[in-house]
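Question: Send over one sample?
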Amino acid sequence: MKPIDYGELDNMVFGRPDVMEDRPSHFCAGCGHGIVQRLIAEVIDELNLQERAICVASIGCTVTAYHYFKVDGLESAHGRAPAVATAIKRCRPDLIPFTLQGDGDLASIGTAEIVHACARGEKLTVIFVNNATYGMTGGQLAPTTLLGMYSTSTIKGRNHHQSGFPIRVCEMLATLDGPSYIARVSLHNPANVRKAKKAIDLAFRAQLSGLGLALVEVLSPCPVNWKIDPVKALDWMVENMIPQYPLGEFKVTPEIALLKKGERA
């Protein structure tokens, strides 16, 4: 059978964003990281940021982001992406640095970095992928791992007497004065993927408008480390993650509210 040449289809409605590299994804089956990167790429294309965007990836599942984006980028030390992005933005205010970080990275070793970047109101865009586990290093306990949840370092489930309670990053950072926009979204169905893109778009436009730090937390499945079928993992997110990490906007400044009124349909 002759392969379909999708470029010849008259009614083509879906294609690879210009800013995405043409290469196979290395992510595990059912992982949400590829979706997040796709949404970021679409937003970069639509806002015409190809020449200005700088991807600052950190250690974890996001570490290979430079393989997928046709924008400048660099890899920071574990947890230090906000500090690196801060340096870029202060030295070159015309650029649009964004960090792409996981929960073990941002909410554990990088806690001080993100807290103080928010406290200073750095003009950055932060995309924070929360899959409740250390995905790249073997599925160990993360700050966001749920109570009772299995991990390779809590084989009987997370116990708060030993490991403490899960950290709600958005709620914590929303208490600070510096951020302009903080939201939590999810990838558990197409409607919520669309909402995730709108939040990511707004986070980039916040930086374009010179406003304080904008952070979007994205709840994402990790079927391999959760030891759940990829389809069932989406139901597991709804039943377990969203009650612990409710979706919504946790910080919206008046300036962000004005941006939202002009958001694209």
Summary: The chain has one domain: 27-137+169-258.
